[in-house]
Amino acid sequence: MPGADPIREGERLLTICNACRYCEGYCAVFPAMERRMSFSDADVHFLANLCHGCAECYYACQYAPPHEFGVNVPRAFAEIRARSYEHYAWPRGLAKVFQGRGIVAIWLAVLAALVAGGANMGGARFYDVIPHDWMITIFLALGVFTAVVQSAGLVRFWKDGGEGIGPWLRPAALARAIRDILSLKNLDSGGVGCTYPDELHSRARRRYHHFAFYGFLLCFASTTVAAIYDNVFGWIAPYAYGSAPVVLGTLGGIGLLIGPVGLLLLRRQRDAAIADPKQDGADASFLILLFLTSFTGLMLLALRETTLMGVLLVTHLAVVLALFVTLPYGKFVHGIYRAAALFKNALEQGPERR
Ligand code: SF4
Ligand code: SF4
């Protein structure tokens, strides 16, 4: 019977699946499982993060509920993934604070801090609204915080799986993992059955992930280029509509509008039997923050010559700050650990896989 502890439940299901092996062609999880005779906590975390929740194994399973074995791999793995975000987070206690509705409170707190700290909403130029040095200090501190905390979580996840830095020097495996990560190819359902009503919805899931993923990368590139313009060349924002930061940010912003909205709509159509309802708040708030980051950024771009510029700038910066503070503790971590799991899987497969 299903157990209360997600890790023990994962171990129970993996033991059943390892005897059955009916689903070994469905995804990377089952071949990785078959390379093991027993399952440590780290193995269960690794396999759960390798799973992309397509639910094919659930619909194919002869031991799924109402069978007494109650095998429901996608749901059990969803719970284990959520546990892994908290388990490897550093400092671990902060992961609880930043879950679900906590994000809204943080956004309001950051907004209040910006306003109380001297933001001049009526300023005519960006740095009249928020002084240049203050903006640089805030974002530099936050960038360092996010990078350190996120790296600490990734190191803990990687070391827990028994891996050192040696594997990073194996370029063939690294290249395979990067190809899998960038193509998101595992998100397609193979057609036996899937989380969504039909194959079309399943493929849409991959497309929306692409929009969100590359939209985020383009927005990050835009911010990086803008920082170089400012700090290396001394070119002060706002930049021309045809400049690199604006073009990258606009393209990325469009991706971050389409991807999160599409994923939020798809969530309403998924099969509730394979979802973990405890994660709904954290998942939705991450997607909403991504959408708001893009929406407020594009509004700022469109209305930067008007009297609304000050309000829009402060709102956009508050959303970006809230997003970055919560990145290492929310759904974003899923992408980091999944990438690490794909790399570990590529290492275990050895050189024979092309
Ligand atoms: S999910 Fe069910 S059918 Fe698939 S390997 Fe596990 S026990 Fe067998
Ligand atoms: S839900 Fe999909 S990805 Fe996850 S174990 Fe089952 S078949 Fe594999």
Model description:
This protein has helices at 6-20, 29-34, 41-50, 56-60, 73-88, 92-97, 102-116, 126-129, 132-160, 171-183, 199-233, 244-267, 280-302, 309-326, 332-349. With 354 residues, the chain is an all-alpha fold. The chain has two domains: 6-83, no CATH class; 90-349, no CATH class. Helix 3 packs across helix 15 (332-349) and helix 9 (132-160) runs parallel beside helix 15 (332-349). It is elongated, with a radius of gyration of 22 Å. The chain starts with 5 loop residues before the first helix and ends in a 5-residue tail after the last helix. The mean pLDDT is 86. The structure holds iron/sulfur cluster (2 copies). Residues 23, 26-27, 29, 51-57, 73-74, 77 line the site of one iron/sulfur cluster. One iron/sulfur cluster binds at residues 16-17, 20-23, 57, 60-63, 71, 73.
